[in-house]
Design a protein that fits this description.
- The radius of gyration is 21 Å and the shape is globular.
- The two termini are 32 Å apart.
- The protein has helices at 2-14, 18-26, 31-34, 37-71, 77-92, 95-102, 104-124, 128-151, 153-156, 162-189, 193-214, 230-245, 253-275, 292-306, 312-320, 324-331, 333-345, 350-373, 381-410, 416-447, 452-477.
- The longest helix is centred in the first third of the chain and has 35 residues, at 37-71.
- The chain has 3 domains: 1-19 and 26-228, Up-down Bundle (Growth Hormone, Chain: A), CATH 1.20.1250; 230-279; 284-479, Growth Hormone, Chain: A (Up-down Bundle), CATH 1.20.1250.
- With 485 residues, the protein is mostly helical.
Length: 485
């Protein structure tokens, strides 16, 4: 998703430079050449790496009810997603450094092998704690693969195929959104969740073998790389861990303490980010007078809503009596709305784009509230259909805004290099929001333990509070510069 919005930003930037745009058009190759024998293996690696990462979260969400039924550990439900996402955040900070040190082939080989190791641990996990550990390993490998998908296009393909390749890699996010829940649901339906991870292991190993033959082995020029922001990353990881811990301790005081510690650590992360010499987000984020911080907060609010998808298959099976396959597809309803709206939203003019960004949090919040209000035991088929409709509308809100947020990030500065960093950091913001919200959602579900309907409503309404904050940040993010009418 983020990749698609980055492409929209790139296109917007090109329209400001007619000669560059004309050159790009003249140099665009054909799809037949991209998939020709000479480049096919490399293209499969680039697209396959992103697809593995994109589908994995939804894939596992569809499997989770079956996994819990088999090995228990329901109190660690949210940790499965949080561990994966936090590892991906850390890995995303290391992509350029791994490329510079080892080259494209070795970097991809590392990503696929680490991902495969995580999948193997998952397939063999006797307990939920072991599964969480496997997901952390998988997340690190997946985070590398997702970041490498764009970074390696320049070295693996000729310049006239870059546009086609970037479009293909972007499409893998949509493929993952649609295929992940369906494939996970099929394995859950068959009672073969371990074989689901065995399949991921096999695919990762096949792509690893292709890597050695298809990609350049020379290291990229070292260039200038800023130090890894260790302190902010440690604080962020501890904050997500504290939020996740709140779902495993006794309700009441211990839960409140864990949530309070998580909030304090999150505040410390922001403080260290703003004051430190090295940060996760661009320094421009913390500069007074820029809109970038509001853009990132709007992205975070929108992405918070996506985390309902981790738990919707569970509620679909338990409250709606759905099969694992149908429950998995219900979990993808929000992302389907996201994809559909994004396709039509990318061509909006500047004024309409501002309005779309402002409307987006309202649509998302409204859809989530409707879904939460409709939660009931033994839901009829008609109610389940309305659930899907509410989630689809929520997703439409995200898709309306997302293509324009990277454009807004790029436009927050006149410096091209800083603008590129600002747009690229949207992916990091997205992962951070996923990780923190997933951890909080697990706690909200635990608070409603006595009733699954209460758990569903607490989780949905709690996330809706976070998305509602986006209505305010969107206004600040889309303020017109002084002097502009």
């Amino acid at each position: 998703m983020t990749a698609t919005s980055s492409n929209a930003a790139a296109r917007a930037e090109n329209t400001n430079d007619d000669s560059a745009s004309e050159s790009a058009v003249e140099g665009t190759g054909r799809w037949s050449e991209l998939f020709a024998g000479r480049y096919l293996a490399g293209v499969l690696i680039l697209a396959g790496g992103v697809a593995l990462y994109a589908m994995n979260l939804y894939f596992t969400a569809a499997l989770m009810p079956s996994i819990v039924e088999d090995i228990g550990g329901d109190r660690y439900y949210a940790w499965v997603a949080t561990g994966f996402l936090m590892a991906a955040v850390i890995a995303s900070m290391l992509v350029s450094r791994v490329l510079a040190a080892a080259g494209a082939a070795a970097a991809y080989l590392l990503g696929f092998l680490v991902f495969a190791a995580g999948a193997a641990i998952n397939a063999l996990s006797p307990t939920m704690e072991a599964l969480v550990a496997g997901r952390v390993v998988q997340g690190f490998g997946g985070g590398l693969l997702a970041g490498l998908g764009y970074a390696v296009i320049r070295t693996a393909l000729p310049s006239h195929l870059w546009g086609r390749a970037a479009g293909l890699v972007s499409a893998m996010w949509g493929v993952g959104t649609l295929v992940g829940p369906a494939l996970g649901g099929v394995f859950a339906e068959l009672g073969a969740w371990r074989w689901a991870y065995a399949l991921l292991l096999a695919v990762a190993l096949v792509l690893a073998v292709l890597t050695r033959k298809a990609l350049p082995r020379n290291a990229q020029p070292a260039g200038e790389h800023s130090p890894v922001p260790v302190a902010p990353l440690v604080l962020l990881t501890l904050a997500a861990s504290a939020f996740s811990l709140s779902s495993t301790v006794s309700p009441g005081g211990p839960t409140a303490v864990a949530l309070g510690v998580g909030a304090l650590l999150l505040g410390a992360f922001v403080l260290v980010e703003a004051k430190g010499s090295v940060s996760v987000l661009p320094r421009l984020t913390y500069t007074r007078g820029t809109s970038l911080k509001w853009i990132y907060l709007t992205v975070a609010a929108l992405c918070a809503g996506v985390m309902t998808e981790n738990f919707i298959p569970l509620f679909g099976q338990k409250l709606g009596g759905l099969s694992p396959l149908v429950a998995g597809l219900l979990g993808a309803a929000l992302s389907v709305g996201w994809v559909v709206a994004q396709v039509f939203s990318v061509d909006l003019a500047a004024t309409a784009a501002r309005r779309a960004i402002r409307i987006a949090p309202l649509m998302l919040t409204g859809g989530l509230i409707a879904y939460g209000l409709l939660q009931t035991d033994n839901a009829a088929a008609a109610v389940v259909i309305v659930w899907a409709g509410a989630l689809f509308i929520a997703g439409l809100g995200i898709g309306l805004a997302f293509p324009h947020l990277s454009v807004a990030a790029m436009s927050s500065t006149d410096d091209q290099a800083e603008g590129a960093k600002a747009a690229a950091a949207l992916n990091t913001t997205q992962l951070i929001a996923y990780a923190v919200t997933s951890a909080i959602a697990g706690t909200l579900i635990r608070l409603g333990d006595a009733s699954l309907v209460d758990s569903a409503r607490l989780m949905t309404f709690g996330i809706a509070v976070l998305t509602a904050l986006g209505t305010a940040t969107a206004l600040f993010a889309t303020r017109r510069p002084r002097g502009e009418r």
